[in-house]
Amino acid sequence: MDYMQQDAFDTVSAQNAGQVAGTGSADLENMTMNVTGPLIRVDDPPKFELESYIANYTGRTRFNRLYLIGTCSTHLSVEALKAAVAEAKSGRDVTRYERAVRALADVAPNDAEANPDTTWMDHMKKSVKAETDRLEHELRGYKNNLIKESIRMGNEDLGQHYSQIGDLSSASKAFQRMRDYCTTPTHIASMLFKVINVSIERGDWLNVQSNVIRLRNLQSKQEEQAKNQPKMSAALGLSQLHSGSYLDAANSFLGTDASLGDSYNEVLTSNDVAVYGGLCALASMDRNELQRRVLDNNSFRNFLELEPQIRRAISFFCNSKFRPCLEILEAYQADYLLDVHLQRHVQTLFTRIRTKSIQQYLLPFSCVTLESMTKMFSPGSESPTDTSSPFVQELIGLIQDGTLDARIDLEKKVLVSNQVHLRKEVQDSVLDSLENYAREAHIRILRTNIIQAGLEVRADERKQRDERGKGSAFDAMR
Amino acid sequence: MAESLSYLTSVSSQLLSVDKISDDRYDCQIRDLIAYIKRSDKSLDTEFLLNNLNPSQHTLPYLFMLNLRVGSLQKKTRNTSPDEIKPGNDLWVKAVCFLRTFDPIQVRYAGNEWRRLIELIGQAAEAAAKPFLAVQVIRDAILRLDSLCGILSSVHVIFLRLCLLSRSYSYALPVLERQIFHFSTGQVQAYRKYIDHPLCSKNTPKDFFLSDASELSVKLTYRDHVQYFLYGGMIYMALKEWDKSLHWLSIVITSPVNDSVSKIMIEAYKKRMLAGLLGHGKLAPVPKTISSHVLKVFQSLTKPYMSLSEAFERNDFPRLRAEVDIGRSIWRIDNNEGLVSQLYNAYNSFLVLKLGRTFSALTTADVAQQAFTSLESSSKVENFVASLVMAGYLGATMLHLKSPGNATMLHFSGLPETYITRERGVRAWLAKEGQALKMITNGVDQCSNELKLGNENLQLVSKNQRWPDSSGKSGGNVIGEADGIGLEIDEDIMGDNN
Question: Is A456 in contact with B255 (Cβ distance < 8 A)?
Fold first, then answer.
């Protein structure tokens, strides 16, 4: 992580902090809207087909994804929002139906579906209320009868219901209440998965991590563990991705077993694992590691086959063909920007990959012409060797924050890597630490001796001696 | 008169042959001599004696006579610094001559008089508005009395103040470069009293004869040592030795504090911030020894300086200029105007140094474009860079190009240092640091001995504290871990009682 850009890291952690602070009521949809929703507009057409893309998912994530695409992409907005309205109407969550309709009204005000279906809404509100009351009443009954299994199932039903109507914090609470009534490891595992899923949707990534760890520590049968492992690592990877620790995220995704298949479609698909894992690895690992742990990784190969462009990008990177690698990523940028989990991280990940490519590219050279570098990293820009060109500015930035150990020669238009004198460095550091030690020791000795001599600064003494002037000598400095 | 002269000279010349007589005898004789002088001081003709005594051999009589003479003059003219002691006059010449040649061992017995003479010289020079005349004299006297100068006395403070007043900064260096470790105090360590060394002996520890008992220094207060280090820091600042100045100012701001912070320390903190900017282009990190509440006081009282340095560190020139203008009255009140006005120049040079880390060659026009400061034209840049290179801050070369526009190309590489010169430099530096380290280690040892943390003492303590063990261990194990701990504590208590 040493090439991590300082400012990039700051923004990520700031966002993360916001997440942690606002876990109480914020859910994922609101989060993306508040943080980046209005900011990101994707004008390029994505490479996927909306219908086949969304067909891969089940559950509430379908709506979230459709809504995100609808609000961000200019190309697919109407289509996606219509699908989102339909999706919302097939469920029982009134608020998100309202949101989808409002968003659609912004994009296509004349569309028939842009008018809210008030009768459906009223009907649904009433039925939701009745259902909530019924379930809570039932749960109370179970509690009076003190039958553990019934209480557990009652809570589960209630949580399920809350999550269907979009009251995620209540859902999370209901699921967590199940804990005391779980009798077998299987029950606990299923309860934890429910909590994790709700937490993922809420964007409460700390909670996701702690529950995954609980799940991992659970004593259960071998085959159970094997069955849960892929989902666990996928969820863990997701939470690490969101907290900005890309190397950990890459490791988690790489460790996801290929048996994940489409079993976790309510959160992510195998394609997503390939993309997330591939990008995180590309941004955080060096070439050897990428070769060894990503390309030569048999289980992850299954994922990579689903997203061949990621595989191509990684192998281009490993073969030091940075231009094609970056081209692939740029071509797919629109896709990644329209992904509900990846959206906020695309920019950071891409910057890191780019920075790493520049670093790797410079490694074998002691002197590179700016022209060839521009060809490699920002083709098509005019007057590539001018100081004010964006690429040169980028290089200056990288040099100044210490990422690149090189200097620009504007006379010959080359980038010269700095010569390292190991002996000199060692000597300098020795002298430096000697000096620091001597200074600090001196200060400390003086401190002890001052205290021993009773010469600490005191208030009372000052009053008596205030008359004795001290100003005169200061004048000398003027 | 002649007989008293002959008596005084005979005693002193006996004293001179130190090698032949024992320390105790020497001690005895010298005390007799002092008693004689004090007894007969009224009847002595000071002027005659002063003209006939040799200050290097008959240090004590000479010193007493000088003081008597000054005292009587002061009484007569009712003036603390009478005309005769003013620079150039008879007594001044005599005093200077004395301070250059006195015998450091004899002076130990007349610390009070010696100190008064120095104070007098300082006052006289200041009264005549010629403080510089006293600087060298006092410096030589200090070094003569104690060539290592490890102990702070009130004379040091007077000396540095005179140096600042006369702006003779480099004259202070011989004293400043000898690190201070101790402070002359009233109470001598209790155990020292049992080690009976006469004052004249070579083995007498310095902090003994420099203690208040010998009155070589007035009783110090916290003000004196804080002031001393602040003055030292200011002298180094005037000499543009920023690192040393930072160190000295750090000593001031880390001085232990009982209940309230001294204003002198705040002055030092302000100056230290500016010194950090001027010397390194950024705020110097605060030493770890400073306690957090003191730091908070500092920070709350130095807000304008803080925003000034923020502007400086962020390379925000317009803001820097605005901050300097806004705070002009503050800098004036704090007498830091001179330092603040140096910031512009420092800003530019750090900017060029930073460019040197980013570029290996660029035209001066590019520099002007990057800088956004007063260096707006390439010819100004050229002049500025030339001054930096000549001053040795920057290793760079400039080339006038013939081709378009007669631009000047700036190469940041300079002439490479040859291997041998660098190695030699490093070796010399290492040797110097080694010396400094030795001094520090001595200081540390002495300090830990005084704090009873010396090796021998610790061994003794650990020997005394060896408890009778293995008596209750088995019981502890049976009871369990938590109880076991309780039991061990019980054991300790038992050990104490024994």
Answer: yes
Query: Is residue B199 one of the residues assigned to a domain?
Result: no
Query: Which range among A87-101, A330-344, A439-453, B134-148 shows the weakest confidence by mean pLDDT?
Result: B134-148
Write the pLDDT tens digit of every residue in A167-180. Answer: 888 899 888 888 88
Alpha-helix runs per DSSP H in A285-369: 287-289, 298-306, 308-318, 322-331, 333-337, 343-362
Ordered by start, the domain boundaries in chain A are 1-25+221-361, 365-417, 422-456
Same domain, B82 and B41: yes
Q: Does residue B189 sit in the same domain as residue B234?
A: no
How many residues in total does chain B contain? 498
**What is the pLDDT, as a whole number, of residue B470?**
46
Per-residue burial over B334-350, b if 16 or more Cβ lie within 10 Å, else e, is: bbbbebbeebbebbbbb
Same structural domain, B408 and B312 = no
Q: Is the pTM of this model over 0.95?
A: no
Interchain pair A477, B223: CB under 8 A: no
Percent residues over pLDDT 70 in chain A: 86
Residue B245 pLDDT greater than 90, yes or no: yes
* B111 in the same domain as B74: yes
DSSP letter at A294 equals I
User: What does each C-alpha distance from A58 to A63, A66, A200, A276, A364 come to in angstroms?
Assistant: 9, 12, 15, 19, 49
Q: Rounded to a whole number, what is the distance in Å from the CA of A416 to chain B's nearest CA?
A: 8
Chain B hits for A462, Cβ within 8 Å: 223, 260, 262
- Element counts in chain B: helices (H) and strands (E): 25, 5
Higher pLDDT pick, B422 / B44: B422
Q: Is residue B423 part of a domain?
A: no
Residue A278: the pLDDT is 92
Of B298, B319, B350, which closes a domain? Answer: B350
Q: Given CB atoms, is A422 within the 8 Å cutoff of chain B?
A: no
Is pLDDT of A146 > 70?
yes
Same domain, B304 and B375: no
Whether residue B250 lies within 8 A of chain A, CB to CB, comes out as yes
Per the structure, how many domains does chain B have?
A: 4
Best of B264, B313, B440, B444 to disrupt the A interface (most A CBs within 10 Å) is B440
Looking at the structure, tell me whether residues B138 and B34 fall in a common domain.
yes
Q: A454 and B185 in contact by Cβ < 8 A?
A: yes
Q: What is d(CA B359, CA B275) in angstroms, rounded to the nearest whole number? A: 27
Please check whether residue B257 touches A, CB under 8 A. yes
Q: Establish if A461 touches chain B: CB-CB under 8 angstroms.
A: yes
Report if residue B306 sits inside a domain: yes
Q: Are residues B370 and B412 in the same domain?
A: yes
Which chain A positions have a beta carbon within 8 Å of B395's beta carbon?
none
Query: Per residue in A240-274, pLDDT tens?
Result: 999 989 999 999 999 888 888 778 888 888 889 99
Answer whether residue B130 shows pLDDT above 70.
yes
Picking from A20-34, A59-73, A321-335, B107-121, which range would have the lowest pLDDT averaged per residue?
Answer: A20-34
Q: Which amino acid is at B99?
A: L
The domain made up of A1-25+221-361 is a member of CATH 1.10.940.10: no
Q: How confident is the model at residue A222 (pLDDT cuts 50, 70, 90)?
A: confident
Its domain, for residue B443, covers: 431-497
Q: Which residues of B touch A451 (CB under 8 A)?
A: 256
Question: Is the pLDDT confidence value at A29 over 50?
Answer: no
- CA distance to partner chain B, nearest, from residue A477 (Å): 7
Percentage of residues in chain A having pLDDT higher than 90: 12
Residue B421 lies in a domain: no
ipTM metric: 0.80
Residue of chain A whose Cα is closest to the Cα of B437: A438
CA distance to A34, A345, A346, per residue, from A40 (Å): 11, 12, 11
User: CB A456 to CB B264 under 8 A?
Assistant: no
Chain A residues 373-402 with a CB less than 8 Å from chain B: 387, 396, 399-400
- Do A443 and B287 lie within an 8 Å CB cutoff? yes
B403 three-class SS: coil
Nearest to A320 by CA among A351, A278, A281, A291: A291
Domain's final residue, options B305, B333, B350: B350
Residues B146 and B56 in one domain: yes
Q: What is the DSSP letter of A291?
A: I
